[in-house]
What does this fold into?
Amino acid sequence: MFAPPRPERAGHDPAMAPRLPPTSLTATQLREGIGRGLNTALDAAEAAIARIGEREPDVGAWAFFDPELARARARDLDALRASGRPTGPLHGVPVALKDIIDTNDMPTECGTVLEAGRRPRADAVVTARLRAAGALIIGKTVTTELATYAPGRTRNPRNPAHTPGGSSSGSAAAVADTMVPIAIGTQTNGSVIRPAAFCGVVGFKPSFGLVPRTGILIQSPSLDTVGVFARDIADAALVGDVIAGCDRGDRASAGATAPGLAALAASRPPVTPALAFVKSPIWERADAETGEAFAELTEELGGIDETALPEPFGEALKWHRAIMLSEMAHHYRRYAERGRDSLSPLLADMIEEGRAIAAHDYLLARDWQRLLAAALDAFFDSFDAIITPAAPGPAPEGLGSTGDPAFCTIWQLCGAPSVTLPLLTAGNGLPMGVQVVGRRGLDGRLLRTASWIAARLNGEEHQ
It folds into this structure.
């Protein structure tokens, strides 16, 4: 069950870039190739257009994709470079955005007919920062209905009979199927980590507040977080540096600064990281294959002992649900009033459940959120990172559900950063993610530890 990532791409050496088609390159390689004049942004766009044209009928990752718009934006980027003006760290790299993130030149429909045809007047802050870094925003990826649990039309590119996860289903699938090297998603419960694990890519969910959410659909402002899908940790860190930092439109981002993720992720840990294997209070949801795989994994990492969280974490899922549904009922009220019959029964019931939560229960849940976050910080006084499953098992068969997010809930409630690595393979050939969790605010240190883990399990010396 333990298996290193499949060799589906070349390593980081930029010299490899010209020998491979753009869709086979990481974002780092593609950026370097364009910077050296070995590729152009239009080359990257054409390769993505061809790949999407070939695979989209089977995968269904895209909510909006216009090849001519992509070509026009790529030509603009190539003209900028030809002019001799400075280019950004993502110059010419195709990036996909989850269709709840505003774009002023594309629709943002949030996976619901109630937003059909919506054209934002301005970019989200994340979109604007990506554009300023030279990214080629190539299209919008499928989200579940209003970023909740009713699935969209996306299928898992590893096996189309299985769910890709959600709610950032199209973003995960587009990266896994090499349509784009980078995609942006969001997570309120497990919407980055779970689909990344199911589709076999790296998913990075930063600390709460590190990336501003201005111009993104609001579901639960105490939990909503922007995340990154990538083919490797270096690319996730590169994009994290671009999109992180304070924005006045999002109070949660107050005090957030450029974190220097890429440099720290690429550095060598000063000492061997201290790791804790945490089953978490919902371990009974893990399938037998997950249990066996993590036993092998912890042995490979040097015989890591299991460590238990304090008893109050057993109620974390309850507190998370109270916060999420209360805030969702408030922010989605307009959808229920405009067209309740157009909502899935699942979402309509979630809104009703949220409305029924008493104010004192919501406030109690928020108190517990702060207490558990502080307790988790104290836990990291003894450990560099936690290792735990990203999901109960590999992607479930069927497209009627996006899978169980429970293995992400505690860390999401506490605002801790997490990353999932495609290091395990189930007996049916589907990937299983290893979730690595770090201390809130120490995202670079988490990515460095995750890089060390990946290198160790691949028999490599982490540089």
